[in-house]
Amino acid sequence: MSSSEPPASADDDGPQDESVMTVVVAFVANILIAVAKSVAAAITGSASMLAEAAHSWADTGNEVFLLIAQRRAAKPADPTHPLGHGREVYVWSLFAAIGLFAVGAGVSITHGISELANPEPATDFGIAYAVLGVSALLEGASFFQASRQARRAAADRNRDLFEHVLATSDPTVRAVFFEDGAALVGLAIAFAGIGLHQVTGSATPDAIGSILVGVLLGVVAIVLIDRNRRFLVGQSADSELQDAALRDILRLTEVARVTELRLEYVGAGLLFVTGAVDLVGNPAEDEASHVLASVERRISANPHIVGALLSLSEPEDAALVPRGRS
């Protein structure tokens, strides 16, 4: 397998520096938005604005978790972690998703219900609209960065954007994409709730807006929690990546056929390969062990492969045949 030719045509969303940049852009945008919304919520008394402030503070905290995830996952392999620390990215991304659920969704829904029970009039609607407008611009910039990175990777894999964001092994891109997308929808909900509050004089639409923002954040958090859980417990590569890896291994002159092949994610864009192969010429046991070790090293030379472990095929095992496009 050529080390210059990723078996995944690369499932990752580009260089890790770009993923870090995506998170940094989101962090800067969210902290500015969180401060502005908090001030606006204190001045206006709007339930929807308070929900949006809680949302933005939760997102800001999440970006900190995602930056920690990137840093810890980049640590090299060591004797106690022979496959590296790539799965750390899923652990910290899971913490971020739980934080979004607990802080963002919990505060928004709780405050909305409280506002329904004890409504309070809002004031200074102009400030609220101005903050929502500026927030939309900042969230849009962050969403554009995440979308641009994901769209390029989706095109490489012949996927649509949403399908790729759900499937990608890079949880930081998925988190920023969903959080910023939810933020833009939440801003529209808040704008409608505040607008109806101003027009009707009733705090009910504003309170309902707060609850809807919370429900939206809860749904996004559950999706992110589930995706990180899947990768933590062992997510296998899709059939396209399996076929690409199979074709690359079959190109090796030492390999006559492959009867078993498994690719498991151990980090963002990082795979561990196990399988069984039949060697050309049926070499003796000593020679076969050397040939297998050489094949494993050549597979592991690929930057997307953290390790490979192969055994010899049983004679009666059927050979695997690549499917899909070549």
Topology of this structure?
Blueprint: H1 16-44, H2 47-73, H3 88-117, H4 125-156, H5 161-167, H6 171-200, H7 204-234, H8 239-250, E1 255-267, E2 270-279, H9 285-300, E3 305-312
Helix pairs in contact: 1-2, 1-4, 1-6, 2-3, 2-6, 2-7, 3-7, 4-5, 4-6, 6-7
- CATH superfamily assignment of the largest domain? Cation efflux protein transmembrane domain
Cα distance spanning the termini? 15 Å
Number of strands: 3
The percentage helix is 55-70%
How many strands, what sense, and barrel or not for the largest sheet? Answer: 3 strands, mixed
* Rg, nearest Å: 25 Å
What's the number of helices?
A: 9
Low-confidence stretches: 1-10
When the domains are counted, the total is 2
> For this structure, what is the CATH class of the largest domain?
Mainly Alpha
Overall geometric form = elongated
CATH topology of the largest domain: Alpha-lytic protease prodomain-like
Whole-number mean pLDDT: 86
- Which architecture of the largest domain per CATH? Up-down Bundle
Order of helices and strands: HHHHHHHHEEHE
Explain the overall architecture.
The protein is mainly alpha-helical. It has 2 domains: 16-234, Alpha-lytic protease prodomain-like (Up-down Bundle); 239-312, Alpha-Beta Plaits (2-Layer Sandwich). It is 66% helix and 10% strand. It contains 9 helices and 3 strands. It has helices spanning 16-44, 47-73, 88-117, 125-156, 161-167, 171-200, 204-234, 239-250, 285-300; strands at 255-267, 270-279, 305-312. The chain has a 3-stranded mixed sheet. Strand 1 (255-267) and strand 2 (270-279) form a beta hairpin. The longest helix has 32 residues, at 125-156. The radius of gyration is 25 Å and the shape is elongated. The two termini are 15 Å apart. Mean pLDDT is 86; it is low at 1-10.
